[in-house]
Each structure stands twice: as C-alpha cells, then as structure tokens.
C-alpha cells in the first residue's frame, strides 16, 4: 500500500456509485471519503474514553469543509486517504486530508473544521481535557503539510 504519511490512513476502492457521467469520482464524493476517514480517526479518540464511548454520541458538528482537486480518480482504483488534526482552538479543531492514487499521485486534499457541540443545549463547549494530549501522542512527529 502506498502511504499518504498522515497519522491515520485508510484505503478505499472507488465504487460505481462514486463516479459521474464523465467516469471520474464525483466532486461531492470526496467529502464522503473525508467523512469516512474522519469518523474512523475519531473512533480512535473515542476508544480512549475522552469523548464518550459511542460513535453516534460523538459531540461534534462540522462547520466548514473544503476540497482541492488535483487529479481524477477512476472506477475500481484504490485510493489511500489520510487524515490528521492540524489545529486546536478552544472549542474547535481542524483536520487535514490527503487522497492519493494507487500510483502515488495526489488526487485531492482538503480541510474540515469541527466544533465540540452539545446537541441537547445546542451550544459549543470547550474541547475536553486530555483530547489534545491524546492527539499529540497519536500523531507523534507528524507535521501538517503546507498545501498551496
């Protein structure tokens, strides 16, 4: 497997449902790829007990998402998708993503901003103690890339 060199990585095969009429992965699908790797990464944090234990109870809300497309991805191609936390604020954090083709080419990269959110009170709250320390250990030595 070609590594994306991100703290958390998965591989996904492009499915028929992912492509558009031109035969390429549709632009909106990349956000689903980001979501898949993000939830799996956050599952690691959940297993630490720092944000609860059930993924469906994850106290986050997505407030911003962007994607830059560099190369088309095709049906049945295996994509390597990496994710890492690049910034912590008081109540929010940023995640960066890289989608790499099976030949090593950069397909896309992106960023999302998540806010800790209590769905009952409908309000943001500070990132729990220990989450930053857990992420720092989990991502030990990783430097977020400086994409253009």
Outline the structure in words.
There is one protein chain. The protein is α+β, with helices and mostly antiparallel strands. It has a single domain, classed as Hotdog Thioesterase (Thiol Ester Dehydrase, Chain A). It has 2 helices and 6 strands, in the order βαβββββα. The chain has helices at 29-47, 131-138, and strands spanning 8-13, 60-69, 78-88, 92-100, 106-118, 123-124.
Spell out the key features of this protein.
148 residues, alpha+beta
**Helix/strand structural class:** alpha+beta
CATH superfamily: Hotdog Thioesterase
Which CATH class is shown?
Alpha Beta
Number of helices: 2
Low-confidence stretches: none
Strand content: 25-35%
| Secondary structure: number of strands | 6
Q: Radius of gyration over alpha carbons?
A: 16 Å
Determine the mean pLDDT: 90
What percentage of residues falls in helices of 4 or more residues? 10-25%
What is the overall shape? Answer: globular
The CATH topology turns out to be Thiol Ester Dehydrase, Chain A
Can you tell me the CATH architecture?
A: Roll
Could you describe the largest sheet, including whether it forms a barrel?
Answer: 6 strands, antiparallel
Q: What is the element string, with H for helices and E for strands? A: EHEEEEEH
- How many separate structural domains? 1
Distance, first to last CA: 26 Å
List the helices and strands and how they pair.
Elements: E1 8-13, H1 29-47, E2 60-69, E3 78-88, E4 92-100, E5 106-118, E6 123-124, H2 131-138
């Amino acid at each position: 497997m070609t590594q994306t060199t991100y703290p958390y990585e998965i591989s996904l095969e492009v499915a028929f449902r992912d492509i558009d009429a031109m035969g390429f992965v549709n632009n909106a699908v990349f956000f689903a790829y980001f979501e898949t790797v993000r939830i799996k990464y956050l599952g690691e944090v959940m297993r630490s007990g720092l944000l609860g234990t059930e993924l469906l109870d994850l106290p986050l809300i997505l407030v911003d998402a962007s994607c830059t497309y560099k190369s088309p991805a095709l049906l049945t191609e295996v994509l390597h998708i990496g994710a890492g936390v690049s910034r912590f604020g008081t109540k929010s954090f940023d995640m960066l993503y890289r989608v790499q083709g099976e030949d090593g080419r950069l397909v896309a990269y992106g960023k999302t901003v998540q806010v800790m959110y209590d769905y009952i009170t409908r309000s943001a709250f500070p990132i729990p103690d220990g989450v930053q320390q857990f992420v720092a250990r989990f991502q030990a030595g990783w430097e977020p890339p400086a994409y253009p």
